[in-house]
Amino acid sequence: MQECFVKPVIRQLMLLLCLLPLVINFNRCAKVVAPTGGDKDTIPPVVTSCSPPNYSTEFSSQVIDIGFDEFIQLRDVNQKLIVSPPMKQKPDVQIRGKGIRIRIHDELLPNSTYTLNFNDAIVDNNEGNPLEGFEYVFSTGRELDSLQIRGTLVNALTLQPEEGVYAMLYMNLRDSAPYLQVPYYVGKTNKNGEFTISHIRADTFRLFALKDMNMNYLFDQANEAIGFLDSLIVLPAEGDIRPDTLASDLGMIGGAGIRVPFFRLKMFTEERETGQYISSSSRDIKNRLMIVFGAPSDSLPRWGEVPGYIAPGDFLAEWNPRKDTLFLWIRDSLLMNSEMIRLPLEYLATDSTGENLWVTDTLSFRYASPGRAGRDNLPDEGSGLPAFALTPVTRNKSQLDLNRPVVLEGNFPVTATDTSRISLKMEIDSLQQDVPYTLTRDSLRTRRFLVTAAWEPETKYRLNVLPGAFTGYLGNSHDTLKLEYTTRKADYYGNLYLNVTGVEGQVIVQMLGSSEEVLQEKAIASDTYLEFEYLHPGKVIFRAIDDRNGNGEWDTGHYLQKIQPERVHYYPEEVNVRANWDIELNWDIDFEVETVPAQAVR
What we know:
Largest sheet: 5 strands, antiparallel
CATH topology of the largest domain: Immunoglobulin-like
Radius of gyration: 37 Å
CATH superfamily of the largest domain: Carboxypeptidase-like, regulatory domain
Strand content: 35-45%
Number of helices: 4
Helix content: under 10%
Number of domains: 5
CATH class of the largest domain: Mainly Beta
CATH architecture of the largest domain: Sandwich
Distance between the termini: 93 Å
Structural class: mainly beta
């Protein structure tokens, strides 16, 4: 018995010993891998049911249930859901299982077709795949309206698409409609600036676009961008859809044989005329009063005598570049050292009827000394007057561009200059050589002065400004100023030459940088050969402005006056300026073509 038992055990042990290396090797080679779930889900939710059915007529329900083939989420549904015609109170949308329930709170208009466009607010629960452009449509009448318009909205100056802007149709054809009532039909632009308004009845409409800042469908804020069609849109019940406008194109609905009007509107912000008023007043340094107006002014205010002091000649007036801030520099030292100044000021204001009239205000200006730690308005030794300082706007020891001046600025107004106390020298082989220069005052910033010369490339310059070169309005001068600059190499720059044709009337040609900032601009009135020299390497864009009123700047539009913004036209390509390279371009300007360089699109 024992022998029968032992032998099988021995045989089993021997078998295990033979299999052990295989087991060890298998464990070494084996790798634990997490189970996979198959390909990523890229399919959006599918609508499986609608109650009442989608595209219902004689609709009277206050509740709509929509079912899907999977669980879903709602993303920003309050912002993305567009209801047309708009309701005073937007419907509530809530998730219920594999579906949504919509509750309508408003009383519905009779014989009207409603569209609830969810855009991409409905996504699946797992991967967030959006159900693009889902619409629930119903009519409170016996028929569904089926007409449609399409279009794009672009920024009037940049011609870039405007996203998230309402395109609105009004049955009220009065100009005041966008101010007073919500539209009858509404659509919203996508990221490409495109909009569609569907299920429109046959009628005549006004088309208006609004970047609605307070979400009330009314043009009631000055900073809301708008766009409008100059004429009305006529949508007949049968036959071709005929827009009563020149600013349209006709596209086809695939297979339907129905032509759909296409409109392109330019968005702009109005420069509304506001009544003139004093916005604020202050006295940040002891010898200056600052008065900020609500709008730019061309009329210098008149000031009266300060109680307890002498005559109105105690002030020197200075406007800022925008002409909406007036600086009154105090001349009289006794008045300057007064803690409180009450100044009667008479200025040209605007009344409620839009008429200009002179208004008198008494303004109070208090100055609190900054104490020993304060550094502004330190007095000159001996005179006791605030110190006049001259500082370089062009930073000392920086590289100087060959086409740029050295800019100096005084902290107070300058009443006299003496060029004999200014010297400009260039260094050649360790020798100093005098250089002729021109000193001019900046036309907009009157405390700035420009030192211009025929700069040589790769050259060191020294600018010495001795006391007395500039005299401040109080009669005192500045300390000695010694500046050094080295000009760039000539081959650092690129040059660009533009042969401009097709010019009718005054045109402003602008060269824009990568951030759409204006680098240079030139006004022309005929076909011209323009030179842009000493340009930094990089990308530039050219824009032309149809300067209809000849004021040298781009003007926005005005809705009630039926003025569209001034037209713009872009050179069709972004231009790459390269170092030590000349580029010649031909540009035939056509303001009917609204092309933006592809690389410039945001």
